[in-house]
Design brief:
453 residues, 11 helices, 21 strands, 34% strand, binds ligand ISJ, IsoChor_synthase
Amino acid sequence: MNPPDGEAGAALVPDADAALVSRSCEVSDVSFGSFLAAGDRHRIHWAAPDGLEVVGGGAAARLTADGPDRFETLRRDAETLFSVVDHEGPAATRPRVFGGLAFGADHDAAGVWEGFPAAAFTLPAVQLTRVDDGTYLTVTRYGPDADADGAEEALAAARDRLDDLPMMRARGEKPGVVDTEWLVDREEWTAQVASVIDRIRGGDLRKVVLATALRVDLAEEIDIPDTLGRLRRTYPECYRFLVQPTGGKGFFGPPPERLVRREGEVVETEALAGSMPRGDTPEADAEYARSLLESDKLQHEQRLVVDTICEQLDAFGTVGEGQQDVRKLTNIQHLQTPINAVLDGDTHVLTLVEALHPTPAVGGLPLDLALSTIRETETWDRGWYASPVGWFDAAGDGEFAVGIRSGVAGGREATLFAGNGIVGDSDPADEWDELQPKVRPIMDELEREARTE
Ligand SMILES: C=C(O[C@@H]1C=C(C(=O)O)C=C[C@H]1O)C(=O)O
């Protein structure tokens, strides 16, 4: 499905002499899974609970950055990329770049994260967009020679290729799990949690989110588009994303948590922290929800996140805190508080991401001390786990989820991630139990047999 990268005259990196030309047409509803499965490089998938769904293949252009200035580099290169835009099509198909960043700026693109820079966004060469009023095919050309004729020809060719794709993609079998291994197992992780609790009780540290990873050996190769298709059914209330820069591993998952969304002057975010299982009966479920709301420890965790997000947004406009509620997902429930802001000025969504990431829901407080504790304690590489994933456009609007409930997978290997907020009155054994549901969304799509425990 994908045209080769860097087709005649195309510039993959932003270039002051280049133009961005994109053309869209409406298509009858096609299988997004088939489209993704036919691509081999720069595959992206983005689905937001409010209905926007995009799949992309190939890169018309890419923005990458690393080091402490990665946000600055991205904003500068985005300005170059979007300086000349010739787009014809509905607003939903306007040029957007999709991707994200590693958790930390000192990211090492090695091991399972090979091919994942510290920040990478792709302007898809070919894209399908599904919104309430229809499904659209978009082709984008970027480079000194990009022009309307070329884009229109490419659109016609992409439309022909789309006709050859199966309308429905038969659901494959789950790949099956041969073996699993926690990179930091129960004993070691609870010891890490105990030492973090000691640090919190003894000093200035207030909260640290400690994570671990589950390495999974699969019986068959994973089919990520198929897995995402299943997650659409099991976690319809969540985002779904895939970032797959090369033909190698893909980072994907169904995160429930919005980092930030900016549309014009309106900013929406949330604090999501504090977890309880779902109950087997409505009564048991309501009991868990009540204990979420009434737990001093979980309310403390939640309050730290709310206050920090509000303080951080305060610099950009007028901030409002919504009513706290319980967010029920298929296998877990969380305390959630919506937070919104009206911007004073034209603040790019990347600037908001830079200010908010990592929130105390995935980092901790105070941030510097929490990050150094994470670095000293976690013996494995977070890579892109718990990082911002999403999109932004020429206007600086965009939406980002927090890359949790996620995994990085390819071939017969997957690594899934899960973390928990630790505060002074956390209990290490309880925290380990609370961690388990966080790998289940993806794990349930890998295992063939229903669990017996
Ligand atoms: C860190 C994760 O989740 C975060 C931590 C939570 C908690 O500590 O209760 C709840 C929701 C998320 O903000 C994860 O899923 O890996």
